[in-house]
Write a structure and sequence with these properties.
DNA-binding; three-stranded antiparallel sheet; homodimer; 14% strand; Arc Repressor Mutant, subunit A; globular; alpha+beta
DNA sequence: CCTTTAGTTCAAAATATTTGAACTATTGAA
DNA sequence: TTCAATAGTTCAAATATTTTGAACTAAAGG
């Protein structure tokens, strides 16, 4: 399996972050992650989105490669955690503002 | 010519706004608009982006239909103005935060 | 080992973006 | 009033991205 790509904090691009958040399903995932202040597996996200797992996998990849989540393999499941501190350092106020304005 | 579409303030969608801003060229245009606190025509935007006018026209359409700019026909040119007040009412803090974080 | 579970990867279909070319509308000049 | 110039839109074809089912991989538990 190809290694999961996690861009370094300093190389995060604003456009990538915005593009990752500019999708209803991904925004919903990020909102839930933020609300639960925790981690979420693909299967964990499934109930709230109702989309196939290959699509979900793709969405988590977009979030990961934009630097919004970190994915850690834990046994058979992958735990996705918000990179809150990195995002806040790189783009101060961005995620809170977007989430505050998310439906 | 089909009328230019300007969504009402209350019908603006966060995802549309984020998607419109999640593009290097459009972000550049919006930044310049904000910096000049003024208006910009397609041709006016051209020098800073170096992309064909049909593409530029498309980008302004995306910005317009997301509710980020209002386009007004003035003689032979179209003046695009940021909908700052509408955006601020609908999504408080969003545009300033994005622009503050834009390269 | 075999099965189950979680997720990735692949490839094809559906969708969106980019762009040159043709078109429309307004202005200004002859 | 007609002609040319300018600004921008619209169309359609090429290109790129997204979505998804199906096949695959990897870990855990019997």
């Amino acid at each position: 399996m190809a290694r999961l790509i996690h861009p370094a904090k300093d190389s995060l691009q604003l456009e990538h972050v915005l593009a990752a958040l500019a999708d209803a399903n991904r925004l919903k995932i990020v909102k839930r992650l933020a609300a639960e202040n925790g981690c979420m597996s693909c299967v964990g996200a499934s109930p709230c989105t109702d989309i196939p797992k290959s699509t979900l996998s793709h969405h988590f990849r977009v979030l990961r490669e934009a630097g919004i989540v970190a994915t850690e393999k834990r046994g058979v499941e992958h735990r996705n955690v918000l990179r809150l501190a990195d995002l806040e350092e790189r783009f101060p106020g961005l995620l809170p503002t977007v989430l505050r304005n998310a439906a």
